[in-house]
Amino acid sequence: MRGTWLIFQRETKQYFTSPLAYLIAFAFLIITGLIFNNDLTLSVDVKPANPAAVPNFLSFGMIFFAPILTMRLLAEESREGTLELLLTAPVRDNDIVFGKFLSAWFYYSVLLALTFSYQFILISITSPDLGHAISAYIGIWLYGGATIAVGLLFSSLTENQVVAAFLSGTTLLFLWLGNIAGQVITDIEMARIVRTLSLQGHFATSFGQGLVRAEDIVYYAGLMAVMLFITIRIVESHRWR
Amino acid sequence: MIEVRNLTKYYGNFAAVNDVSFDAHSGEIVGLLGPNGAGKTSTMRMLTGFMPPSGGYAKVAGYDTFKESIEVRRRVGYLPENVPVYPDMTVRDYVMFWAKLRRVAKPKQQVDAALERVQLTDRRNTLVRNLSKGLKQRLGLAQALVHNPEVIILDEPTIGIDPQQVIEVRNTVKELGQDHTVLFSTHILAEAEQVCDRILIINNGHIVASGEPAALRQQIQPGVQLYILLGKHTPGKVQQLFKAIEGVKHIEQQGDGYVLDVEPGHDVRADIATQIVEAGYALLEMRPLAMTLEDIFLNIISDKDYA
Description:
heterodimer, A: 241 residues, 10 helices, 0% strand, B: 307 residues, alpha/beta, Rossmann fold, Alpha-Beta Plaits, 2 domains
């Protein structure tokens, strides 16, 4: 626990002092701002503004943001050799992985919290369905955690950050595309299975519509657990190479 | 303090460390001397709890490095060969991070003391990325000793830094040896002799010789070699002159100079000097030839059956 906390602290400090993290924050806020603005203009006199516009976009955007946020985490430690020191410090391997995961998820949560400002703007000019917004935010927060866990896994697999980002981006894209594949497959049972496994399938039709379902929470929590478990095993495998 | 028995490490079918046993006591500096790829780093990694042995066991402060790894890691300070650092942290934050991770009771005092010990106090707020190689090496040392560990393991700490810094690092290691057990690897024979209380020579994963530096030199060096450089002279006469001196085994001419193999226990220098001067030649130079690491290996390997 103590190890997790110390690693979390160090990583989080690194996020808030590294230029790259600020560039990511900049891109994140610019794009979500544009999405919000766009939805607002399209809605004038036509329909109520969508309080879940930003989370809906992020369910696609995290395919790109998650790999960039996580690519450094373990790949850099492995390349610089600091992983060897961490593995000879009195901390457990899972402390290292949890600390890093929680730190990336925390940074993402901060970025997400900044987008609450759009909700305040919305509240000040109209009366949005707050339940819908809250549900979408809970969903995209969990969704983000799951994509970050995938990114962390690929960061542990290689010493090269670019390779890590590319592999996790590709994997996330496949997990995301599962939803579309599920829509075009004619065999209904097969389609249901594919869709149930996809990232989007647990967001677009539930959290994104204002629906909080236990099965979706279990899906994202389960994805995180599996990814973190594999990552811990990969970190551990450095000892056996 | 360190107890190693039949330690073995296989990478695939290749035995990097093969049946290595040794002890190191408190307050002792033990040098692992050997060429690259001899198994020094693998041995050290097993002692730090980084990787498990394929066979045998190692104990540090009475704890098994594999079964009680966390206990061992608490008691070991380790500086890997490539000196891993986090470039974006300041010197002080970096040492503080390791201090806290290793559960140091009073981190602030300990960190300041460690920085003082490696003379980095005035650079405490510098970003690690801006340190020179030598300063990074010292930072690595600070990291390894900040939790006041019982055992300090240093993997080639003097590689790639300038001579002044090498001397400083050696002095720090000697100082550390007074109240810690230090295991120190190098491939420089002179360095091992100078710093260590005891040397283990390792080659191809085996310990091929061990002992105190002076004793070890006696044991592996079956005599002394002298290099003698003369002014204008007649080689034939000089060779005869050398042969007449008791204790000279073998004479080899190298240009204007001669290399003499002398039997152990004979000091022939005074004899040689008198005789040469009496014969009317100018004695320009006379010095003992130190054995290099290569010579020692050739010697040991030809003595034993390590191919």
